Model the fold of this input.
Amino acid sequence: GRTIGGVPDGPWLFLGADGQRLAQGVFQAGAAHGEWHAWHPNGTQRETLEYESGLPEGLREEWWPNGVKALEG
Done:
């Protein structure tokens, strides 16, 4: 990701020490915005969450490491 004046802005991809993707989403002026995704250490999807100006907004889904949906709301 990039920063503007030290503030995250634009698309970001967070990777673990081994290069595995952990989370991905967009910042607008330092605040999470839009759809974000996170993954379990085994590579399966862990969470999808929507943000509006840094606050959770809209649908949230979570999955167990085996891929079974754990939460939707």
